[in-house]
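Hello Y.,

Per our agreement to keep a running log of every chain we model this quarter, I'm adding this entry. I've kept the format consistent with earlier entries: sequence first, then predicted structure.
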Amino acid sequence: MFKNNPKLKNIFFLGFLLSLHLAFVSYINSSFLAAFSSEKNVSFIYILGSLASLFTLFFVPGILQKIGGYKFLLWSSLLNAISLLLLSILKSSLGIIPIFIFYFTLNNLIVFALDELVQIFSKNSSMGRIRGLYLTVINLAWVISQSISGRTLSEFSFSAIYLIAFVIMATFFVIAFVSLKKLNDPKYDKVLAWQSFKNFFANKNLARAYIINFLLQFFYVWMVIYTPIYLYSHLGFDWKEIGFIFMIMLLPFVLIQYPLGKHSDKIGERKMLILGFVVASLATLSLFFIQKHEVWIRAVLLFTTRIGAAIIEVMSDVYFFKHITRENDEFIAIYRNTSPVAYVLAPIIAFTMFSITPSFKFIFLILGALMLCGVYLSSTIKKNDI
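Predicted structure for the entry above:
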């Protein structure tokens, strides 16, 4: 794999670094923002960041045509690193909130840029294996970071977490600058944005992949924003315990995604997507019904939710990327906007839910029920669709 595509190794390492920094901050962002605002207002900050991401992703294909993937990745990562440095220094909500929104937007751009690069260096015949390995590498970073970030936060402060993330992204920028200099971009199709959307959703396989991925991203949004607040503010766990819980929780992404990607053609995306949604749904519902608050019980329950999510993530990606060509970069932008779309809709729904439900934990009841919709959607995939 890497022998024929030496740059693919560099791209995988960049994906690892990006995920390492994201994992350091993602599960503490909501608590960090809540220190400068209320829990309810945190939802609106994420909504603003997501709207900015959607607006920016809309113009990404045109930007790629003008400056190419290399310069796009460099500028995005440089500005990202500067934003993290500012978040580690600033102490006022007037500065932190707009910088966080800017930083949040840049994350989505970098994820898109790396997706584009992996697509360029992947052959359709080995797509499942490459995607499975790539997801395993980036999720390994999430597991590693949780054992460190929780301990760091319990002994230092939020500023230390964002400073470490800055160092990681500064390293990302340097490695990208050196290792991807002679990158040859494909010829990007010059398609109007609205036409791209029409072409995308006219394809039933791409439309189905989009909705499946949206459900997964909605799951991630509620889990990332509200699980840390629930564990810390409502169940009383400290950050060291939360770091341990999250480290255990994320292990399925490392343990099963590469084998699944490698054997996806033999197993079949349809069966595995159905299984993934069933597991994710039942495990999430159990977070609502099980009353015990021991660390190991919460770790096991969240671990099980991520078994389902890990299956959905790799299988939905393989299913999507099998149905596009290297020149369809605008389709990747549309597919990846499921995350910012989810970050817009999920907090709005959560805010409404908090106003009408008697307890914070009802979020897990509603989320578990929502994931059952993915079971039906996955069952509509036909053999000739793959």
